[in-house]
Amino acid sequence: MTEGNQSKAAEERAAKGQSEANRKLKYISLAVLVVQNASLILSIRYVRTLPGDRFFTTSAVVMAEILKVLTCLLIILQQKRFSVKDTFFFLLDAIVLQYKDTLKLAVPSLIYTLQNNLQYVAISNLPAATFQVTYQLKILTTALFSVLMLRKSLSKVQWVSLLLLFAGVAIVQVQQEGNKEASVADGSNQNYTVGLVAVVISCMSSGFAGVYFEKILKGSSASVWVRNVQLGIFGMALGMLGLWWNDGAAIAERGFLFGYTDMVWCVIFNQAFGGLLVAVVVKYADNILKGFATSFSIIVSTVMSIYLFGFHVDLLFTAGAGLVIGAVYMYSLPKAPGGSLSPSSHSSSSASSSASSASPMAAGSGEMDAFLPKSIMKTTNLSARVT
Question: pTM of the entire structure?
């Protein structure tokens, strides 16, 4: 009897310890998601508004793709126990011999490359806070493409949240239109209309590419690392084509790394590894936490924009941003029992939106299991069952 009580007490202590560890991991995940969401936008805005020689954004996009591919190749090499021969023949079969499967990635790769270039254009011409709020339209486009392409259904709360999201973004644009001169006073070569068009196209491409990539992943057993190598190969080729078309003559004269500073390298590393970092922490973050992180990152971007760039916040912007923050949180809430959308389906849709905004690597966070301690994996599995 005494042994049974001791065993029960030990199990309770272990469960309590796991719960505490899981809570800490969720808070760490929240912090990482917020920092990654806000820092990339703020850092791009910062390096693009500094006086002096500016780096070529097309070269930055290509460099980020190179770093992504190298990272995925190293992970595949690790999975093959650092056997160069096994890795070579594995990649030869997955990429070259199964070329039809590889060619499927040409479409999303083209869109991701376009999206990455458009983000630079948009952030270079819009205040960071305005871009952060407007870019949440990717949730709307992802939801619509999910309904059209994957035949998913949305709850009434989600449809209401999408309407609120659109209304909030519209209010922010009205506010920015009324204060256009003030919003671009920190740079002489900025064009608000160009920035707005760029972010809208980026949102549309983000939504389509994320859903298309999700559809491909569902119909294939290939690992997410192989998928990202395939994407990266097309991304580098298409990025180099865009570099030659847009900045070829200037880069031939000044060099590929012209204008690269320590801060520019930080932006590139953030772009390249941000998606991988999100893939790790998303394992410990449910949809509500991810929605809260996105909402909180808007607040962080706005506050930092006031101090870094002299951004002016008025009543209209506050109202619009508040609607967007509320809409993002509402959309991330789980459906009520009896709804037409299963929890797994909703989670997949939300993951598609998150992955398309950062990197397709985030769509395969399950692949990170091989690199996590078993104790953490057990805690994660327990969390998945509880939530």
Answer: 0.77
